[in-house]
């Protein structure tokens, strides 16, 4: 028998992602009918109330509807609930009892404020919920800098071994992110070219059109650098830049990612001004609708950045001299997450002027809103021409929704929850990865402070401050807008 304990079970993440993901696993037969799913939060609900809340969440957030109502009803009967104040140690025993005892496998999804981590871990330990049969998934934020992250990791490590700890970065559950590994290491075509000899630069963009969306306090204390770059974007960079692991196993993959993160050239006081652009959105229009500026949404003036663009380098043999451009922001012109691999030009063109001015070959890996892999190549234009061969760039698309039309598009958390329950750590982040990421971010923030850098204003609905364009165009490249 297995139990899944969901902390923060009445919150937005649970309603939008966790409960629909567990339902998806149940419908596909990947979650056994005897698994007890125990939600817990401070909200004063009983089991019936939690099931009603879950039914409403499923009806709202499950794509294409619930499908088989009988299966939905059966899933709801697997749900239980325990009201819990994280600081009340007596409540954890009730949680253990609701899980059905301590003999079976127990998977905990912990989403809580960093200030409550220590009390929560102590409570789990006091109730016997830290044994060898227990796994714990940790949702971000795991600290606000290296020192606070280490304190959280120390608190968790006092009760759980590293093999029991599953640090979550939901981007690693996305199909296209996993497909990046398949693209690189299951095909002979790309790996010989995946290096500085053939690649001119790499772009990683995570752009949002939304503003604060009720996350005012969190975002004001985090900003774009800590909210997006520290976790999602550095993980994407590591997957792009890593050496081939010996096996597709947790330690082999994560060992290679750590090597990349350790090879990142620090961005510090000497380089922050030339390698970083930070911005904050003002009022403007997104999707044709007027929107307020960040300070107006917040209700006061602020120096928190809502946009970051970085020029990073991985100092090793494979990537010597290849810049990695990262940018992320809120209230930008479009919602998209993508990785662009920009290849070098051919060393000599036999076609003369016709090929000059054309962008070199590019590989575009789109993560959202649509998952897609697109290769841009130069091809001959059909037809006859006395002047010779005419060339044009064409795109070769590998659209996931077309290539795999018979497969249901999954929520990233489905894969992560399944791996947590079954004990596979490959798509989770190891402690040394987290701390290497924080070390890089802390250096950047110190560099901003030393240079007195303040966010540059940009109009909502644009692609950020104009200085971000200059950051990449100084090197003869352009953002993929």
Structure characterization notes:
The chain is α/β, with parallel strands linked by helices and about 475 residues long. The chain has two domains: about 1-140, Rossmann fold (3-Layer(aba) Sandwich); about 170-410 and about 430-475, Dihydrodipicolinate Reductase, domain 2 (2-Layer Sandwich), CATH 3.30.360. It is built from 15 helices and 17 strands. The protein has helices at about 10-25, 45-60, 70-75, 90-100, 115-125, 145-155, 175-185, 215-240, 250-265, 270-275, 295-300, 400-405, 410-420, 430-450, 465-475, and strands at about 1-5, 35-40, 80-85, 105-110, 135-140, 165, 200-205, 275-280, 285, 290, 305-315, 325-330, 335-345, 360-370, 370-380, 390-400, 455-460. The strands form three sheets. The chain has a nine-stranded mixed β-sheet with strand order 16-15-14-13-7-12-11-8-17, with helices on both faces. It has a six-stranded parallel β-sheet with strand order 3-2-1-4-5-6, with helices on both faces. It is globular, with a radius of gyration of 24 Å. The mean pLDDT is about 90.
């Amino acid at each position: 028998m297995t139990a899944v304990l969901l902390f923060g079970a009445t919150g937005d993440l649970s309603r939008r992602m966790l409960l629909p993901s567990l339902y998806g696993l149940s419908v596909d037969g990947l979650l056994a009918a005897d698994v007890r799913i125990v939600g817990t939060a401070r909200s004063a609900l009983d089991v019936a109330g939690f099931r009603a809340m879950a039914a409403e969440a499923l009806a709202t957030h499950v794509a294409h509807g619930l499908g088989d109502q009988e299966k939905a009803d059966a899933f709801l009967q697997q749900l239980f609930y325990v009201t819990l104040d994280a600081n009340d140690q007596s409540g954890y025993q009730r949680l253990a009892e609701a899980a059905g005892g301590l003999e079976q496998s127990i998977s905990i999804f912990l989403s809580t404020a960093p200030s409550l981590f220590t009390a929560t871990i102590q409570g789990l330990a006091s109730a016997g919920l830290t044994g060898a049969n227990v796994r714990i998934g940790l949702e971000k934020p795991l600290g606000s800098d290296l020192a606070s992250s280490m304190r959280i990791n120390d608190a968790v490590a006092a009760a759980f071994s590293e093999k029991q700890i599953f640090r979550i970065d939901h981007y690693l559950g996305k199909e296209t992110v996993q497909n990046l590994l398949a693209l690189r290491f299951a095909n002979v075509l790309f790996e010989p070219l995946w290096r500085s000899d053939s690649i001119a630069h790499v772009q990683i963009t995570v752009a949002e059109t939304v503003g604060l969306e009720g996350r005012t306090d969190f975002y004001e204390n985090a900003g774009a650098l800590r909210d997006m770059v520290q976790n999602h974007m550095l993980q994407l960079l590591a997957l792009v830049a890593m050496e081939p692991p010996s096996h597709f196993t947790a330690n082999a993959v994560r060992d290679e990612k750590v090597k990349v993160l350790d090879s990142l050239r620090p961005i510090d006081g000497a380089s922050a001004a030339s390698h970083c652009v930070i911005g904050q959105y003002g009022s403007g229009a997104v999707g044709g609708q007027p929107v307020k500026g960040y300070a107006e949404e917040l209700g006061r003036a602020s120096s928190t950045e809502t946009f970051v663009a970085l020029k990073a380098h991985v100092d090793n043999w494979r990537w010597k001299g290849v810049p990695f451009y990262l940018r992320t922001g809120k209230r930008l012109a479009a919602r998209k997450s993508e990785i662009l691999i920009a290849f070098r030009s051919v060393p000599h063109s036999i076609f003369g002027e016709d090929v000059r001015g054309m962008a070199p070959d590019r590989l575009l890996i789109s993560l959202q809103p649509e998952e897609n892999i697109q290769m841009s190549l130069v091809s001959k234009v059909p037809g006859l021409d006395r002047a010779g061969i005419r060339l044009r760039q064409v795109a070769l698309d590998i659209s996931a929704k077309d290539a795999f039309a018979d497969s249901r598009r999954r929520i990233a958390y489905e894969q992560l929850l399944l791996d947590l329950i079954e004990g596979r750590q490959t798509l989770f982040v190891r402690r040394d990865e987290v701390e290497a990421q924080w070390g890089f971010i802390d250096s950047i923030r110190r560099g901003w402070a030393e240079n007195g850098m303040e966010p540059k204003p940009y109009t909502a609905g644009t692609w950020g401050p104009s200085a971000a364009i200059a950051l990449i165009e100084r090197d003869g490249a352009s953002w993929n807008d």
